[in-house]
Structure formats: C-alpha cells, structure tokens
Amino acid sequence: MASTRASPARPSIELLSNTSNGGYNDEDDDGETIESLTSKLAIERKVQYGAEKMLDVIEKRTGDEGDQEQVKERIVAQLEAANEHIKALEARLERLRGGESARGTPLRHRRRPQRLNGYASASSINHLSSSASSNLLSSAARPRLGRFGTSAQATPERRGDGHESGGSASTPSRRDLHRRRRSLSLGEDSLSGESYGLAGRSGDSAGTGSVRGSQGAWIPTPVAEHIDEDGTDRADEARALIRRLRERQRVERASKGKSPERGDDVCDGLMRLAELVKKHPAVVATIDPADVVHAVLPCLADTATSRRRSATYRLLRYFLTRPTWGTMLEAGVEWTIIRTFTRDVRAVHERESALRLLRAAVTLPALPKRATSTASSPSSPLRARTRSDQPAPRSRLAALNPPPDPVARLLEHTVPLTEGLVRAIVSAAENPDDAMRTVCMQTLVEIALLDLQCLLRADAFRVVLNALKDGPLELGPAVAGLLLYLINQPATRHLLVAGSDLETVLVGLTEEYGKVAVRQLQRHLDKLQTCVRNVTLLLGSWSGLLYLCMYDFRAIKSLISSLHVPMTEMRNALLDLFFTAFRIEPPSWSDAFLDGRRLTVYNRTQQAHVDMQDDADDDEVVPRLNLVDQYVAFLLAVFVEAGLLEALVALIREDTGALNRKATLLLGETLQLANRILPLQYAARLQALPQLFNGVADFANPGERNAALSALSSIDSLNRNQRKAGQTAQRDRTAPSIMQDSLQRGQKQVQQVKLRLGLQIEDKQFQQMVNDSGVLLGRDHAKWNYDIIMDLLQGPLLNPRRLDEAIKATKFVRRLFSFFHPYNNRFSSIKRTRPNHKWVRLGCTLLSTLLASAEGIRFIIEDKLLRQMVDCLSELDQYAGQLSAQPVFARDRLENSLTYGYFEMIGTLSRHREGMRLLEKFKFFTAFYHLSELRSRDDIIKLIIECFDYSIDAHQRVVLSKALTSSYIDTRLFATHHLGRLLHEAPELTDWTLQLLATQLYDTALEVCEIAVMYLEEACSEAGHLEKVVQLRPTLSHLGDIGYPLFIRFMSTSAGFRYLHQAGYVERELDTWLTERNLLYVVETETFVSKTVRPFTSDTVEDYWTYEGTAPTHFFGELTKTPEGCSFLRERGLVADLAEVIRLHGMEAGDAAVLTTVKSALWAMGNIGATERGLPFLEDEEIIDAIVEIAEQSPVLTMKGTCFFVLGLISSTRMGAEILEEYGWVSTRTPMGMTTGLCLPNDLSRFVQIEPWDRPEIAPTTPPLPALTGVEGDIMLLFSTLSVPVSGIMSHPKIKYARQRHARLFSSVTFFHRALRLISTSHFTATIRRFILDQFAVALEPDTLLRLRHIELQAHVTPLVPYGARDAPAPGQALEDADGDDDDGHDARPRARSSPGPEPPGRPTRARGLTVSELTPLGPEAKQHLVGFK
User: pTM to 2 decimals?
Assistant: First the structure.
C-alpha cells in the first residue's frame, strides 16, 4: 500500500548515523522527486510486508524441514534487501525534504558527531536517518502482531573504533545498550525537556529523554533507552501499530466510508496499543509523542464513533507527559475535549475517558526551568508560515519580537489546563443530572489545591464554594479542608475574598429561615448535619479558627446569632456543634436529664445498680490536661468573647421544652469546662451569669423568672452531680491499694475464725457434717452438699486428727478423690459453665487441705489422681509413645468441660513446697517440657503458664523461661504478657520479672520486644524499679523506635543518663534528633492535635496517642530533667542555635521546609522551657520575647498555633508563668495555685490579628478577540444572552432564525472559533453549551483543528487596536439589515453600507482576525510539519 505520509518516520537508536544506501546512490538525488521516492518506498514496503507474512506462514506449517529452510533463507534475503532499500529511500527522502525546507538558508559546516561512551551525543547529531520498518530477524524471538503487522529494527554493523563507516556502519544491538546504559524511570521521562511542538520544535538538554535533529525529527537518546530484554520488540510492535493505524485511516478516507461500531479495526488497534503501553510504560520513551498524537487525531473527529474517541483518549492518557500534553494542545485536542463534554449521555464512556485524561494532566509534574525555557524558544514552522503570509511591516516586527507561545506559557503553570477545559469540567460539575458531577467537582477541588489561579481565571472557584450548600454534600469536608489549606499562608490566602469565600461554610447555619416542608425535612436535616461537620472542621484547626476571628469575631458572632432564629432543627444542630467543638462528653445521666427526670432519684437508682456490679465504672475520671485542652481553652474563650453564654441564657429563658434542657446542660458543662481550663480572669466572668440572675430577680415577668429559676436549679444540680462523681473517681483513683488491702484483711479474718471454730468442733458434730454432706450416700455429685463439703475442708479437716479420721474411718476423702480421677469421667465430663466452676474450687481446696498435714500428703501419694493426670499428659507427649486418639486433655474438652480444672489443681500444688515435691516425684515437669514444644497445643502451654504459682524458685520458673524462648512467636507473646501481669500482681517477684523482661528485649520478633518495652516502661515509672532496670544495663540500639519510650525513661534520671551516656546512646540519639526526629516531632504533634480535635471521625480511642505530660515527650526536654543532661546541653550549645533559627526565620511565610524547621526549633525550645532546669536556657537567650512576637504577628496561621502551644509549655513552671504574665499571657492554675501548662493572652485581639488584604486581579491566559459588528456581532450578542435565563428564552428563536438566513456564516470556521472562544471564556450551562455548538455546521476534523489552531495563534500574534470613534450600528440592526456575505466571499460588514468610500485619513484602525476565506492555502511544506491528515 502506498503511503502519503509527509513527515519522516522516527529513527531507531541504531540509526543515529549515516545509513547505508542499499543500492541507491546519493548521486541520483538530483533526478528524484518526492513523489517518485514515495512510490518506490511504497513498493519496498509491500515487499517487506509480503515477506513477513510468508515467514509467518512457513513457521506455522509442518512438513519437510529441508525445503522450508531453503525457502525461508530466500525470503529472509528478500526481506533484508527490502529493509536496506527502505532505509536508503527514507534517508534520501529525508535529505530531499530537508533541502527544500532549508532552501534559501546558507548551509553550515557539519562536524563529525561527538561521542559519549562510543555512541552519538544527542547535542551533536546533525544528520539523522529514519526508518519506519524493521528487521524481524534482529532478535531471537520474532513477535507476532496479527493484522496490525510486526517489525523489528535492522541492526547495521559498526567499526571497532566506535565511528560509523559509510554504508556498512552500524550500532550495537539494543540488548547491548540495555546492559550498558543506566535505566531511566518513567518519572524522569516525564520531566524531560523533549519538544512538544506540532513539528520542527526542538528542545534538547542534558538528561532529556529525547532530542530533535536539524530537520525536526525526534530521536531517542541513549538515556531514553530504558527497556528490558524484550523492549526492542515491544517498541517495534508499538511503531507497527501506529503505522497500521495511519494506513487504516487512509483507507477509510479514500473510501469515504465510516467504520462500523462493531468490528472496528482502528478502535481495536487503539485499545491494543493502549494495553501495550500500559503493560510496558518504557515504550513511551522510545516513540515520538508527536507521531502518536497526529496518528490518532483523526479518531477524535466528529465523524468518528464514540467508542473510537473513547479509546483515543485512553491511549493519549498512557502517553501523557507535560511536553506531550503541549503537543496535544497544539494539535487541537482542547477543542475535541470541549466538544466531548457537550455530548449527550450516550457518550458516557467517551466523556469519562476525556475526564480521565484531564485528571492525569492536572497532576503532571512540572518541567525543569531549563527544559521549559529551551522548549519554548524555537519557533514553529506554523508560526513562520503565519508571519510570512502577513504584510511586510508586520513580518519585520515579528522578526524583531518573536510572537508569544501560548502553549509554552501554559505548560509553565502548575496545572496546565486552559480556561476552556476548566469551564468544560465546570459545566459537568454544575449539572445535577450528570453522572460525572461528583468526579468533576473532585477534579475542581484538586485543581484548586494545586493551582488556585487556574480556577480563578475560569471563574470556577465559585462552583467549588457553592458545593458547600448545593452539594454534593459528601464533598463538604473536602472543600472545607481545601479552604483551610488556602487560608493558611499569605500566598494563597490573598487569592480569596476576605470576609466572603470561607464564610460560605456557615451558610447552612446562618441563612436558613422559615418552616421546612415535611417531604423535604430529611434532606434539610442532612444538609444541617453536613454543615455542622464542615463548621466543626473549621473550628478544629488553627487556620479556620483564626480566620473566623477576623473583623472582631464577625463570623463567630454570626454563627452564635443563629441561636435566636426560631427553628428547632437549626438550634438543635448548633447545640450539637458546640458540644462537639468543645469536646464535651455528655455524662452518663445526661439522657435522664434531657428527658426531664430528676437527677437525685435517678442517681440513687444508678448508684444501687453500680454497687451490684463487680467493678466500678471509671468513665467520670477527669483526664490529664494536654495540648488539646489548651486548644479547647482558646476556642472556649473566643466563643465566650463573642457572646455564647448570653445566647444560651436567652434560649433558656425563651424555650421551655427539650431545647431548654439541652441548652441548660451545655451551659452547665461549659461552666465546668471553663473552671477547669480557663485562667481565673476568664472563668470569673463566666460564673457570674448576670443575665440569668437578673431574670430571677425580675418579678414582673413570671414566665421568664420561672425559666431562669429552673435553669439555675438545673445548673446547681448538674454541679452537685459532677462534684460527687469527681470525688468518687478521685477516691477510687488515689486509694485502690488501701481498699484492696482492707478486703484481703477481712478475708483473712474470716478464714481465721472458720479455722478456730473447725478445730474446736465436737466429734458428733463432725460426724453429722460428714453425713450431711451426702458424699457417703452415693457417687452422684449432684446430690452432694457443696457448702458443707467446703466448710469441712476449710475447717475441721485442717486438724490432722480429724483428717486422719476421715481418711481411715470413712470413705469421705477417698470418694472425693475418686470423683476427680480423670479416667472416671465424672469431674472431667461436667459441662463448663460458671455455676459448675465451684467443683474446680472444691478440687483445689481439697488438695490444699491435704497438703497441710503429713497424713494428707501420704494419701495423695497413694491415690491415683496425680498418676492419672500424668498419664493424661503423656497421651499428648510424642516422646512417651502413648498417643491416644481421644485424649482427656483434647482441645474441645478443655474448652467445653471442667477438664481445664486439673491445671488449676496443678497450680494449687505449685503454691506449696510439698506440692512441688509431689509434682517432681510424679515427673509432671518432664511432661511440661515436652508439651512446650508442641505447636498444635499452645492452649495447654498457656494454661500451664497461667496456673503456675511462681513464688517458689523451682521448676515452674524454668517452664516459664522455656516458654519465653520458645520457637513459636505466639507462645513467646503470651508468656511475655503473663510476665508483665506478674510484675503488677506479685511485687515480691519484681527482681525476677524485670530480669526476664530485660532478656525479652533481645527477642528476634519485634512484637515481643515491643511488649517487653511497654511493661518495662510502665515499671520504670517507680524510681526503685528504674534503678533496678538500669543496673541490668539493657541494650537499646537494636530496638530502634520501639525502644524509644524506655530510652526516654532512662534519660529522666541521673543514673539512667550516665548509663546511656557511657554507652554512647545519648550522642547517637542527639544526632538522630538533629537530622530527623525534630521534624518528625512536628508532624506527630500536629497529627495528634488534629486527630483528637477532629469530629465525626471513624477512629477509635485506641488510635489516639496518649501522653503523660502536656505534649509528646521530647528528647531535649528530657535532657533538662537531670543536672547531667543540662550540662551536656550547655556544652553542645544547641539552645543558642535553636534560638538563632527562630530569630532569623520566625516570620517566614512561603518556604514550607523553612516553616517546618522553625516549628521544630519552637517545639524544642518549648520542651526545654517546660522544666525548672531548662527555663534558664531560654532566659539566657532572651527568646521568649521572640516567640511571643511570632505568635502575635506571624503571617502563617499554623505558625501562630505552634507558638501558642509552645507558650503553654513554657507556662508549665511557676517561673515561666510569671515571665509570660509580663508579656500579657495569663496561665491557668489549680485552686492550690499550681500551673497546669495552659495559658491564654489577656487580650485575644492581639493573637487573632490577621492583616486584611485585597484580592489581586488574575490576568487571562488568552488575549481578547477584536469586537465584531454587523451580523456576526449581533449573533454573538445573542449567544452571550443565553447565559441569563430570562433573556436566553427570547434569544433561542432569534438564533434559529439567524441560522436559517445566514447559513454560510454558521459554516465558517472563523465564526465557529468565536463560539468556541465564547463558551471557553464565559459561563454557560451544559445545555446552552451544547445548543451553541449544535448551531454550527462545522465538523471537528483534522483540517478544521488545523485552521482553529491557525486562528488561535493569529489572535496571540495580532495586536488589538480599539475602534476609536467609529460609529457602530445599534445592536440587532445589522442582523435585520444584512442580507448575507459580499460577492468576494468576505463577511458582510455594516460599515461598508453606511460609510462607502475609502477610509478617512488619520482614523485609527484595528487589526481583524483572518477568516477562513482570507487564509492563504497551506502548501505541502507546511502540511509536512503539521501532520498527514489526508
């Protein structure tokens, strides 16, 4: 098939030098033309294609291998000859075209190409050869590409010196290049500076993935060849697919037929190429993006199917880089995407693919500055052609001042989207019936996050703000988070309208009035709930809260004033907002209070219920104050300053229903909160409640007086309950050991009384008790009297004489032991329930009683109980050889029966030394050692570990030690946890448990190490335990972050610091903090505050960090707790360095890295100043004044919040609080005068101050077009009125009439460009945009896109000159008077009718954009650079 492609094919990496002629001499170039060479090239390609097909057929056939080899050799020879001929023809064709394009330009001397590691340098290539075909035999495995063909690059030979040599020169194979060259990631390729022009634009720089030769051909540099072993085949396959796409499209254009939707070969090829690039992204670096764009551009035409356009957008997305995006825009993809967004719902896949392409373009990485400048400097042949068509003066002006490149300027933006593309997304985001509405709105939010100016140029930011009210409601938190990000720093804050944009979040709570219909009530409640979530997000961040305090708390006051609106739903939502914002946890009796029940009666019932429970409920425990409480203190002070209490009192006096009680509860909780976290001067004003007491004293209004009295009574009741609950919680928290000791003393006294009474019992009474127990009457345990048996065992039988009598004279003891024998299946078959657990206690008590006397021990030895228990354990022992199919200690029996009680009996034996001797005698521990190696029976190991008593230093400790070093991690984890419990429950075992826990620090599993660190860190809270752990000298370096809590514990004591300093831990940790941890501390702290303050979160309480102090532990703060640490800090001089950073960069407003560094220095200084020994460091550096100044004047809002927290840390000490009072910051103190680490400015206006601003004007990226007059102007005016609903209704019939009367005007590409520019620069709904484009009889074909691009460039080149005093007809007059176009084809102008004759001298004129009829027809030279559209 003959090819009419005008642009040269992309060469391979092997052909970076002069190719061999393959039988065609260079001397014949003078007699050849482009047409003849093209015909010869088509013939050779047919030969190549036929040879490839024949090779495929031969490989599939089976037969005589000798004949096949001979035929195959001949075909291969023909194929190689065809490849050489194609290569030579393409080289000559390239030179011929290059000579024509450069005619008239003096030739420069061409030097020998420079070499880099034996290969041609990208910067020195002057003459390049290209090849559109390849040799299938250049690699071992030849790919099969089906109907879209196959190809592989021919590999010419090369000399050993590394230079090409005439016709036999060649380069190494791509497999060799793969071994020798560094791989380039796809991200590097996307940042490369390759050309993105339509053609001829070159931009090469060091490190780019491609360059262009002197004739504009795209060449992959060696750096771009980052392909794997089969990368050559994949790249050739992609080139073959692109070539076949062109051929199919040429066939379709020649036949003037449309490809059917089913069986569309072009669409299948597009999808196949997309899948290839998706699976092998490295292929993108080997293909010229311009070739791809121009090859698939016809598939985006209006005549193409929707399925084909969708596949094309998908393919372009996989090839997308920032330079490639510029190529797409210059090719006219912008107009096709705008047209795609105006299509109906049937093109859902096409619209989705276009949106995916735009979303990918939004997140493109920026070009390096050198690549941007290099890529934008060369001029395009299209612009050269445009300038040559203009008059001579304009050409000379353009030669002196090169025209601006709009695409190059656009690519310099963070988000390289034009105004028209953004408005296309807006049209879908505003349409409530569009399925892509939510995704489009998310895209706009992402654009605003990356480049807000891009939205402001298209007036699209208002759409994002309207989403807070109109929906989608699920995007409310995302939009609120976007606003918080934008208002934080001045660079983005100045782009917002002060007092207007961010206040849109409050619309749902400040602009809702009147009753709501019942059918819309649920939607109204959902909107209120969403609005509450968004507002709470603002109140939960420094950026939002400080911004809302602007203009004398105007936004806060507006929010509070909504409580006066008589709407129950909105008032209820506002009260919920305040409960959430202040982090008020409603007490357990709040529901009873809201229901109107009296708290006294309810509390008595609740207290009786609590007394019946085993453990007390500690929900009312007041938590320790931390950073979140400091933030809430400031938030509460702001709302109190804005009048929250007055609004609540007014609501209480006005309403008498459920809202009254809810407002009363909020008022009472607010007073309690203020009393705990606010300084005295703030809290004192709140407790007065002057309005409420005035209402009580107002006897003239009985209704309001009763409401005020009820409110005061309720507040007093709430305070009493809060105080009572706090006292109970404090008592339970401070004296748990006293209660436990008293309980144990009472139990011991009861046991002593029972023992004394049992020893004094008479013989008849003892015999009567034995008979009444029922044991002697039968073996059925259900008929036994359990209480009498327990009384006997805990009383009379403790007497050795009575026990001897019971053993020898009766069957009482023998029958009890027979009940517990495992093989009797009596005790072991009882169902495991809580009531049946008494029989386990009976067995343990029986063994304890018998172990108290020698006669009892003798009986245990003679009985079968222990012997059978050992036999049951041996049933599981693989070493004993007595494995049983149904063992007594099977897993299901342990879980469902009382069989587990035998292990509790073993634990009872381990509490007595005589019992330990019995366990050793019957070889229980041998069985335990063997069972500890069974992974399948970890349940038995856990039972053994739990039931053992470790107070005696014997084998049971060895068993636990063996479990701690088991080969199974689950066993080690359980044993470590049990060791931690022993540390709390058995203080006498502290030394032993601490030693074993320290050994667990060296476990191979980090989970075990983490558990050991947790228990050791808890134990080190006591000074004595800490000294013992330090004496063990554990190694912490191998633990990393896991061992950090234990490291910090060591740092807080002098002994620990000395040990760590001697071991070198302090030096290493200091280096870590200076390089990394200081910055991570900033992230951790800010995340902690945001996660804790953030409302409506799915995180559980366990996900939050918990700290013992006000802030997370800091290394510098721990250093200052010991004299040795302070000396170390002073010797290093670190405080002076931190202070210098704060002074120099405290007012930084733009650099994020510098801001993080300053925050880390502030946190370090705050933690140093939070200790008594560390505060003198801050006083010596006089840095507190600088911190206060940053807090009050920093332009970055989060920086002000960081300083606020730091000042709270400094106020943790009495001296620090006194220093801050000198600067106007007051501290919160306890009733005893102790500081709490919270402080507030005595004047909130100084801290919340933000400099007001005016939003600057955003210059458009596209220059305005000259104003139209006459018919064109009237029609454009009608189009403009469509944006207004009222006038748009009247404009529809006029536009249709104008279309019928001036049909030729609606077929003009120039006028169509005006319409595209109108919908790209003005706001229209999706329906109106579709209506405007449907009026034109202009199809978006490649030729149309070329002319649109020509007109758009002309608008950037041509200066705009105003009309001056020209008299223009009235609007609509020309539309009524004009009959059509002039005879010469030019558009009709009203001036030609009203003012005939030559132009008056001296009258200013304007340059008018060229129409299609005025354009000079494009020659073959221009088309060869633009694309082969035919």
Answer: 0.70
